Amino acid sequence: MHETIERVSEYYKRVNHWQNRRSIRVLPDQVRLQVTVPSCSHCVTCQRRVREFQEILAQKPDVICQWRTLNDGAYWVFFNRKEDQDPIQLLRDILEVSIT
Ligand SMILES: [Zn+2]
C-alpha cells in the first residue's frame, strides 16, 4: 500500500484512563492505534494493553486487524474502515474503550 503523508491525519487521544495519550492515524481506508508507548513497549503495562486488546479481538473473529511495530518503536494495531466510518468511533466499538 502506498501512503502519501497528506492523506494521513494524526490525533493524540486518551484511551480509557491510560496515563499516556496514544497516537491515532487515520487513512482513507484504515485507522491505526498506537497501543504501546514508544520506547516503553516492553514494560508490563504496555504488554498488558496489548494482551487486553488481543483478548477482545479474539472474541471478534470478523474484525480484520494487523499488528505492526512502526518506526516509532511502538506496537500498533490497524483496522480497515470504510471512508464514511468515523475512525474514532470504530476504535471505541471494536476495542470497547473510551477515547477522548
Ligand atoms: Zn510501557
Summarize the structure.
With 100 residues, this protein is α+β, with helices and mostly antiparallel strands. Helix content is 24%, strand content 27%. The protein has a five-stranded antiparallel beta sheet, covered by helices on one side.
Structure report:
The chain is α+β, with helices and mostly antiparallel strands and 100 residues long. It has one domain (5-95): Phosphorylase Kinase, domain 1 (2-Layer Sandwich). 24% of the residues lie in helices and 27% in strands. The chain has two helices and five strands. A five-stranded antiparallel sheet has the order 1-2-3-5-4, covered by helices on one side. Strand 4 (65-69) and strand 5 (75-80) form a beta hairpin.
